[in-house]
Amino acid sequence: MKQFTIFVVDDSRLNRQVVVEVLSNTYNIEEAASGQEFFQQLEEGILPDLVLLDVHMPRENGHDIIGKLKADERYVHIPVVFMTHDNDLSTELQGFKEGAVDFITKPLNPALLMARINRILDLYYLQSKLQEEIQIRTQAILDKTQQMTIMFDEIIQALANTIDAKDKYTKGHSDRVSKYSVMIGKQLGYTEMQLLRLKYAALLHDIGKIGIPDGIINKTAPLTDEEFETVKTHPVIGGDILKTITSVKDIYDGAMYHHEHYDGSGYPEGLYGKGIPEIARIINVADSYDAMTSRRSYRGMLTQEEVRSELEKGLGSQFDPIIGSIMLQIIDDDFGFTLHE
User: Fold this and answer.
1) How far apart are CA 30 and CA 55, in angstroms?
2) What is the dotted CATH code of the domain comprising 5-137?
3) Which residue range or ranges hold the HD-GYP domain (predicted)?
4) In what order do the strands lie in the sheet with 80-84?
5) Antiparallel, parallel or unpaired: β 50-54 and 28-32
6) Where along the chain do its domains lie?
7) Counting Cβ atoms within 10 Å, is residue 192 exposed (0-12), middle (13-18) or buried (19+)?
8) 250 Cβ contact partners less than 8 Å away, ≥ 6 residues apart
9) Which residues are catalytic?
């Protein structure tokens, strides 16, 4: 165990001598006759484990000194024991409110002084070791959590890349939908955790396309009614794939309901209004925006004005009017039309 340093601050040289004689065989003792001298030595690098502080001193008294000490984050953790001739309950109560851990009455009794200081420093040492252990264990948990988060991110990203690779016309689609969704979520006031769940859900919203034949996904000619009905099954397929991930329900909702329309005309369940999970309503807008600002086998990329017009027409029918309006504002703020494929 290290040797503790005790700083005695008292304008009485006799009282300081008593402390030195009683404690110097066990502890390293530093002395100061005033608050000014005490703080000067602190600034020079002397950092005590405990301060014995006289209450009544000229210029700065003990209450002034402990106030300055506890106001400085470098020293706030240092325990302070007041020394006083007062036998006054109000003085003790004031001291405890100011952060003192104990009081020792003058004249100093050597045996009582040693016993009090030993008890306080034993407790301080145990608290310090406990805090150190908590910090070590907390950091280990944080490191492990960060590793798991990075791994989860990489898995989600790999799945998103796999989805996009299936359709040669939609490379990067999942990343862009995720980006636009998070932009909308921020405007809605989402927390960091909500934004993270939204990001994951948007990245995986089209995972059900894994179950759609490549010949339909990459067909350049118009789809037949039967082929379109096959495409419309991808939300259900995606929901089936993700439904076992119960820890992040939003991932399921994003895949299952991102083609639902606000007026109930969407699929697969014909949900409408606020009955559609909000995260799916966000992805619906972001997904539609990216579809219109990306090249397809059957058309080129729409202009910003055309995209804005289509989104505006869809407010309240295909799109949640609040979320759609947020996307319109994002478009208006994109002066250089940078948000596209």
Assistant:
1) 18
2) 3.40.50.2300
3) 148-341
4) 28-32, 5-9, 50-54, 80-84, 102-105
5) unpaired
6) 5-137, 167-333
7) exposed
8) 197, 198, 200, 201, 277, 279
9) 209
Beta strand extents in 48-142 (DSSP E only): 50-54, 80-84, 102-105
Q: Which residues have C-beta within 8 Å of that of residue 226, sequence separation ≥ 6?
A: none
Which H or E run includes 111?
A: helix 110-166
Q: What are phi and psi of 294, to 5 degrees?
A: -120, 155
CATH number for the domain formed by residue range(s) 167-333: 1.10.3210.10
Q: Tell me phi and psi for residue 28, to 5 degrees.
A: -85, 125
Contact criterion met (CB below 8 Å) for 66 and 80: yes
The structure tokens listed for 88 are: 């006054």
What is the chain's pLDDT, residue by residue, as a tens digit (341 residues)?
A: 568 899 999 999 999 999 999 999 999 999 999 999 999 999 999 999 999 999 999 889 999 999 999 999 999 989 999 998 877 788 888 888 998 988 888 888 888 889 889 888 888 888 778 778 888 888 888 888 888 878 888 888 888 888 877 776 667 899 999 999 999 999 999 999 999 999 999 999 999 998 888 888 888 888 899 999 999 999 999 999 888 887 777 899 999 999 999 999 999 999 999 999 999 999 999 999 999 998 776 677 888 999 999 999 999 999 999 999 999 999 999 888 888 76
Same fold, 5-137 and 167-333: no
On the 0-12 / 13-18 / 19+ scale of CB atoms within 10 A, 224 is exposed
Q: Please tell me the total number of residues recorded for the chain in this structure.
A: 341
Instruction: Report CA-CA distances (Å) from 125 to 1, 80, 90, 135.
Output: 9, 14, 29, 15
